[in-house]
């Protein structure tokens, strides 16, 4: 009985082994049937980089607007295009509407020029705008106060008025 079991086990093992080899052969022929696709060629464009103009607001000097872009190249399908843009209304426009600066505190008043100044360093430039790294702005000092004793001048005015009343 053991020999019959042994023979049956060998037959099962042989059948499993043949099935395994059949599966391997099938997979191998399926892979061989597929043609290898040539790798996609990376198409190098001879088009240049986009160069963008400054943002031009549609109305006023800030808000929504448009900018035009151009690029060069012999085989470029598109050499010009228009893009929407926005100019923030709270930016200092005297340095370019696309340049944002971080300013220091106002300096002391220069008595010779009656101006005070402060310096700003570039914080951000929109759309690769050409911005200065640092800028300086000036403004009038406002009311210049000369140190004078106010208490004495008020007393003199009051005394003067009293004397005028007495004389009348």
TrEMBL record:
Residues 96-158 form the Pleiotrophin/Midkine C-terminal domain. GO terms for biological process: positive regulation of cell division; positive regulation of developmental process; regulation of neurogenesis. InterPro entries: Midkine_heparin-bd_GF, PTN/MK_C_dom, PTN/MK_C_dom_sf, PTN/MK_diS_sf, PTN/MK_N_dom, PTN/MK_N_dom_sf, PTN_MK_heparin-bd_GF_CS. Its main location: secreted. SUPFAM superfamilies: Midkine. This is Pleiotrophin. Keywords: Disulfide bond, Growth factor, Heparin-binding, Mitogen, Secreted, Signal. Residues 1-32 form the signal peptide. The keyword Secreted applies. The keyword Disulfide bond applies. Pfam families: PTN_MK_C (PF01091), PTN_MK_N (PF05196). It is found in: Secreted. Residues 139-168 are annotated as: Disordered. Belongs to the pleiotrophin family. Residues 34-95 form the Pleiotrophin/Midkine N-terminal domain. PANTHER family: PLEIOTROPHIN, PLEIOTROPHIN FAMILY MEMBER. Secreted growth factor that mediates its signal through cell-surface proteoglycan and non-proteoglycan receptors. Regulates many processes like cell proliferation, cell survival, cell growth, cell differentiation and cell migration. One of its GO terms (molecular function) is heparin binding. GO terms for cellular component: extracellular region.
